[in-house]
């Protein structure tokens, strides 16, 4: 490809609103352009990289035995209503209405569609197991699209679905996809970990996220410093034992605290540690009020609360809801004398607090010397807090450390959630109908491109791993007005193409500095520069990653490039 006719509009300055490196470099290198918030066009350079990632994903999926197909983006609402997700998925589901007032969803995923296809076309146990996949555009109405293609409203995704006779078969299919994902992200030269995670709106129980370790990830990974344990912070179990102190119980008293609402303000006011306070948070769980209690120095975990109560929906109560249910504003809520309809769930650490402090359910007042069981009732105790750095690893090996991560893949065991809802059954060897057991597996193809850039860049631009580089070679004629340089460059351009290399040939009448800056920004691994020694048939070759430059006679160039491409 001649760079003079290649649409690659590079930028010198960092665009406003681009907060992370991948977003900045994808814009500056001319890979993408924004059409609307969270919606991007991939320009030719970006499209080539996207296709390289897509092809690696496709190769590993095919090797796993999965079959590729293609499904529509627009999905009838009836399928989503049958599965129960039309409302449960929430505002991220993009809904549209056609001219006949029929409702559709722009698919964020395809469990409903694929289940209906298998339901209608698979009858016998002899046709199972099977895994089907597609690579297709998905849509999610993100509340805050940001970080470029890392959190967009339209994105490219590989989604696969396994169909098995039983849960033993699902375990095998799940492991096949887990292994395929491990190969995909290893081939992409990514520093990743597979972590235990929450299934969210997908349903199912067992699930792993494939997370690329990064300083800009939106998820926090809790991992052991001595073992392979790794889990998303929202699901990582806490394995800590708590014991009460030997303090004598004191009389509970109500104290005026007019300007103290937060745990920090309250503990400072009483000149004590946050660990002596009880943090009380009102949640609406499936339309019912639940008060969640954690120790003041801990963070409440609504995902764990959702699993504990096997709930469909868990939302932090609004100020208006808190006032209506408890009769007090947020900041003064506590577990003493709560309305009878409010269930109280507490993290085990709360039980060890002696003579603690909590909101008094009265404006601008707190209770001191509060003790569990004596002063208030707890419906149940459960692990309901976030794990913290320094906590024991749940597997008993080492301590917990934190690292941010970018989710690039997710594997789920769905079980029979969708097959039962949509009537997808098979006849076993005795002619009896059984629900098909399913799994769901996704790779964010477009966000993986950004994750690669986050890991592979320097101060000058992108440093592509060869496997996803948009071109194999960046050929640069430093001065195209100089006839010998121009002639040699044209000859090498044709030779590289004949040898099967994909070449970006910078034949623009630009200054050398402009060409070199663009080359660093675009980040093709191998650069061949034709300059003042062209008359001697000598060129410079530069390794983008190491910066090493070497002069070669053109007779030695072919062997050098061949050897380089094998690295």
From TrEMBL:
InterPro entries: aa-tRNA-synt_IIb, aa-tRNA-synth_II, aa-tRNA-synth_II/BPL/LPL, Anticodon-bd, Anticodon-bd_dom_sf, Pro-tRNA-ligase_IIa, Pro-tRNA-synth_IIa_bac-type, Pro-tRNA-Synthase_IIa_type1
Pfam families xref list: HGTP_anticodon, tRNA-synt_2b, tRNA_edit
Catalytic activity: tRNA(Pro) + L-proline + ATP = L-prolyl-tRNA(Pro) + AMP + diphosphate
Subcellular location, principal: cytoplasm
EC number: 6.1.1.15
Gene3D superfamilies cross-referenced by the UniProt entry: Anticodon-binding domain, Bira Bifunctional Protein, Domain 2
Family per record: Belongs to the class-II aminoacyl-tRNA synthetase family. ProS type 1 subfamily.
UniProt xrefs under PANTHER family: MITOCHONDRIAL RIBOSOME PROTEIN L39/PROLYL-TRNA LIGASE FAMILY MEMBER (PTHR42753), PROLINE--TRNA LIGASE (PTHR42753:SF2)
Protein name in the entry: Proline--tRNA ligase
């Amino acid at each position: 490809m001649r760079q003079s006719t290649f649409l690659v509009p590079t930028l010198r300055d960092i665009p406003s609103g681009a907060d992370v490196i991948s977003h900045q470099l994808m814009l500056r290198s001319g890979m993408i352009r924004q059409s609307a918030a969270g919606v991007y066009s991939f320009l030719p350079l970006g499209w080539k990289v996207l296709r390289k990632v897509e092809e690696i994903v496709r190769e590993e999926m095919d090797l796993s035995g999965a079959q590729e197909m293609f499904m529509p983006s627009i999905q009838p609402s009836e399928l989503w209503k049958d599965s129960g997700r039309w409302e449960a998925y929430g505002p991220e589901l993009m809904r549209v209405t056609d001219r006949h007032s029929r409702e559709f969803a722009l698919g964020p995923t395809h469990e409903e569609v694929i289940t209906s296809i298998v339901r209608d076309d698979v009858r016998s146990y002899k046709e199972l197991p099977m895994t089907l996949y597609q690579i297709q555009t998905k849509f999610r109405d993100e509340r805050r699209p940001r970080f470029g293609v890392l959190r967009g409203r339209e994105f490219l995704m590989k989604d696969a679905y396994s169909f098995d006779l039983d849960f033993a078969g699902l375990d095998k299919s799940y492991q096949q996809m887990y292994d395929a994902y491990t190969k995909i992200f290893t081939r992409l030269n990514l520093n990743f970990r597979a972590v235990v995670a929450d299934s969210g709106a997908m349903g199912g129980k067992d699930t792993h996220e494939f997370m690329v370790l990064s300083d800009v990830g939106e998820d926090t990974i809790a991992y052991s410093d001595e073992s392979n344990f790794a889990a998303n912070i929202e699901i990582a179990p806490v394995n800590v034992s708590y014991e009460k102190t030997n303090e004598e119980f004191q009389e509970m008293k109500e104290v005026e605290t007019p300007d103290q609402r937060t745990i920090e303000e309250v503990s400072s006011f009483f000149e004590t540690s946050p660990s002596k306070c009880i943090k009380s948070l009102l949640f609406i769980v499936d339309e019912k009020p639940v008060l969640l209690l954690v120790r003041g120095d801990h963070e409440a975990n609504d995902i764990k609360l959702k699993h504990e109560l096997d709930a469909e929906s868990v939302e932090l109560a609004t100020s208006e809801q808190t006032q209506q249910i408890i009769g007090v504003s947020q900041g003064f809520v506590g577990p003493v004398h709560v309305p009878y309809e409010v269930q109280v769930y507490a993290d085990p650490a709360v039980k060890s607090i002696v003579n603690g402090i909590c909101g008094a359910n009265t404006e601008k007042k707190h209770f001191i010397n509060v003790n569990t069981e004596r002063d208030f009732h707890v419906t149940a105790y459960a692990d309901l807090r976030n794990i913290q750095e320094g906590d024991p690893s749940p597997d008993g090996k080492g301590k917990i450390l934190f690292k941010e991560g970018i989710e690039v893949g997710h594997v789920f065991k769905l079980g029979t959630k969708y097959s039962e809802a949509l009537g997808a059954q098979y006849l076993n060897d005795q002619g009896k109908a059984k629900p098909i057991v399913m799994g769901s597996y996704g790779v964010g193809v477009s966000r993986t491109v950004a994750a690669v850039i986050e890991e592979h860049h320097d101060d000058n631009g992108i440093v592509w791993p060869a496997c996803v580089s948009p071109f194999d070679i960046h050929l640069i004629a430093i001065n195209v007005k100089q006839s010998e340089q121009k002639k040699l460059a044209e000859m090498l351009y044709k030779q590289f193409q004949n040898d099967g290399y994909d070449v970006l040939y910078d034949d623009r009448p630009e200054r050398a500095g402009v060409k070199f800056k663009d080359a660093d920004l675009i980040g093709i691994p191998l650069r061949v520069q034709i300059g003042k020694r062209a008359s001697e048939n000598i060129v410079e070759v530069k390794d983008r990653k190491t910066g090493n430059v070497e002069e070669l006679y053109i007779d030695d160039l072919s062997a050098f490039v061949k050897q380089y491409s094998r690295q």
